[in-house]
Design goal:
The protein is mainly α and 121 residues long. The chain is 59% helix and 12% strand. The chain has a three-stranded antiparallel beta sheet with strand order 1-3-2. Strand 2 and strand 3 form a beta hairpin. The longest helix has 15 residues.
């Protein structure tokens, strides 16, 4: 594509859509919120973390159950769980000496479900 092939607006500068631009600027979240959103989506950019979230979508599990389900080492699973906890995508509770992990809330379930639905269309 040459520089002359790039898309550009045919409207002259006198006919800008100031009303649309103004409304958009009012709706746009603050930069720090957009950064947080981008960081959240980075967590979904790793297939190992997605596999863990899918496993937790079905049931609460301890690290060893997740590791066995996904044919991974407990160390590898623990590393990914730490990232998912920091992103507030999973939650946990202690049950005796075990730590049981689950999806943090229904929003995480919805993101997983909608993502899966989107790729299957």
């Amino acid at each position: 594509m040459s520089i002359n092939d790039t898309e550009h607006c045919e409207i002259s500068h006198e006919h800008k859509h100031d009303d649309k631009i103004s409304e958009f600027k009012k709706m746009m979240p603050e930069e720090d919120k957009l950064y947080d959103l981008a960081e959240l989506f980075k967590c979904f950019g790793d297939s190992t973390r997605i596999r863990i979230l899918f496993a937790l979508f079905e049931s609460e599990m301890c690290v060893c159950d997740i590791a066995n389900t996904l044919d991974m080492t407990q160390s590898a699973v623990s590393h990914q769980l730490k990232i998912l906890k920091q992103a507030k995508l999973i939650d946990f509770r202690r049950e005796g000496k075990s730590v049981i992990y689950k999806l943090a809330d229904d929003h995480v379930s919805s993101i997983i479900a909608q993502g899966a639905e989107h790729i299957l269309e």
